[in-house]
Amino acid sequence: MLTNKDGEAVPKQVEFNLMASSFGGLMPRVRSYHQELVRAFGATHAELQSMPECASDSNFAAAMLQARDLYNRSVKGDGDIVFLVSGSEANIFDQRHLERAIYHTLTDKVMSVRVRRVSFEDGLLARIRIDADRRLFIDDLEVAVLYFRHCYSPDHFPSDASWQLRKMLELNRAIKCPCIEYMLANTKLVQTGYSSPNWLASKVYRTEMKNCALIEKSLASQWTLSPEFGINSQQEIDEIVSKAMANPSNFVLKPQREGGANNYFDAELVAKLKEMANTPQAKAFVLMERLKPPTTRNCLLPIAKGATPTSVEVTSELGFYGAFLSICEGDKEQILINQHSGHLVRTKPVHVNEAGINAGFAALDSPFLID
To answer: Where is the Glutathione synthase substrate-binding domain (predicted)?
Structure first.
């Protein structure tokens, strides 16, 4: 996201998402639709080229098929791909486009594949088994790749049985997207560490040490609310909390949650900081600088039935999709895929704090590049 700093628009990374990263299936369609719109209004060929290609669906499909091939060669199995979804899935069209892309990405080497959607709630515990070689089966299907589009929110685990199920889904040889290690690396607390030069330097690859300053500069500043994590000292925490209490409009208070609609702003931020003062609950939150992006006018299509599209002041946030696949043996890692896979733009009205699309706060958008 761009933020206004000393009269300039400076790019800052808000966070990275290794879980609940949606719309890779829809963004190519959004780009195509927007290109048709600008063409209808007389856009030149050069202007059409200012809308970058987005192939997130086919790139994700290729990565999943490569992961499936890796699994089958490793265990000499015949596994396929499972999308783990909610029983009341609201984002099914995005997921169906990814499924379709997998079938369209098949090559002469990979002639067929099964993609099965499985609900986390549908008595799944009774339908899964793990054999002596730690291969995962759901009904009659051997699972090579388990793609999580669920299990990232506390309300996804209403019982002890759901936690037992989650454990069984992890402790087997299927390739997970993401695995539990990456889910933990995705937490706000870990991401906050990248705002600390010493913590950052201790975590990046030696070959990337020269880029530490660039990484730190590109990230939005964040602070933990407990010195126990070794990221911020108590003095730093006291100082930043005092600043947030005095000027809450300059900060965002974020819990360890995904999926949108969980952050605290303005007066709610102050009230929450007071409520958590000197309590263990504060350990689960981080403070982040609130970015001040430039605004433009745009027309958003409302989701409410019968609502009329209106031109409003908006801000936009640009995200980049990536695919990553590696083999880990002990402390050694062999990276097989690490590539840019497309982009996502979320646009919301200026007066709206949150930017979640599924939560109804923002809309999918397309970038238009200018010099």
So the answer is: 81-185
